[in-house]
Structure formats: structure tokens, C-alpha cells
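Input.
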Amino acid sequence: MTDLLEKSKTKNLSKPNTKNLENKDTKKLAMSDTRAKKIKHSYKVKDAGNALLLQTKYGDIVIEMLPDIAPNHVQRIKELVRQGFYNGLKFHRVIDGFMAQTGCPRGDGTGGSGKKLKAEFNRTPHKRGTVSMARSMMPDSADSQFFICYADCPWLDGQYTVWGEVTSGMEFVDMLKKGEGPNGMVYEPDEIIAVSVIEDI
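Output.
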């Protein structure tokens, strides 16, 4: 039988070395297959390979992607997600009643991943929860930035590439800090903690 340590001796035991790990290191810690499977099923998505878990300080946002209407955009978004590109990026432009935009590594709306995408405009309407690509005046200029609609925005239909829809956690999108600067720019904006393809969790 193993002897129990006296209380006085337990104070001298070293603390677990996982406590002070940085976020990037804690993500590498092993998770049991059972727990991972439970997490996947808890989100109740149609296709875990085409669904994203976007984590914020307010809560988890689930985005189901639409490869049938925007295959190239969905493929590129998944590539960037798996590279960890979106982790830590800001919701730099948030306009109450309109949309919340993120995906700029510079945090000011001028940056991207460096790979422009050919537009995949489609007939899917921009409504509350729609996820669509941001772009410049040029149709084929979408890169990594995207926005989530707060309300129906029919004037955007057919002009921007819709590639996903928030199916859970829209209440957390509502909580994002709103912009007070020009064109909805946010001072000290909220950020994405991490994004994962649910299949990979």
C-alpha cells in the first residue's frame, strides 16, 4: 500500500508544470479521444469538416461553412485556420446593427494573408448571422478578412462572397465591442482567442 504524504510534506511538492504554459503550448496538451468526440458532438453541426469553432472571451461561436456555393473561399479559410492565422486577430471594425469584421493581421483593415481570391458571388442573402468576405472596390480582392452580419443587409447580396453562417453563439457576436471611430473602427477591440475546424478538435 502506498503511504500517504504528511500534510507538511505536500507543501514541498512541485506544482504542475502546465500552469504557466502559454496559450500556444496548452493547445498541444493531449486530449482523450472520448473528450474530443464529446466536444465535436456538442456543437451539432452538419459537417464537422466544414464547420469552425471561433472562441471569444464572451463564448464560443460556431460557423457552418458553405462549400457548395463558395468552395475556393471555404478551402482557403480552412487553410488559414489550420495555420493559426486568425488566432489573436481583432474585430477591428464593428458597426452596431450592421456587421462585425475581423481577419486583418494589422488590426486596421489594411492587411491580409497575401493571397487574393477570385470572387464567388452567389445568391445566398446577407441576413443576421451570415458570414461573408470583405473586399476592396475590386471584385477579386478578398483575402483573409470577413464579416458577420448583425441584421439583414440585402444591398450586399451578389456583391460579396457569402461562405458561412453562424449557427450557434450569435449572442456572443452581439457582445463584441462596437466601433466609435471612423467607419466603425474599434478602439481597444475584442479579439479572436482561437479558431479551429471542428473536425480537428
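Residues 32-200 form a domain with the Cyclophilin fold (CATH 2.40.100.10).
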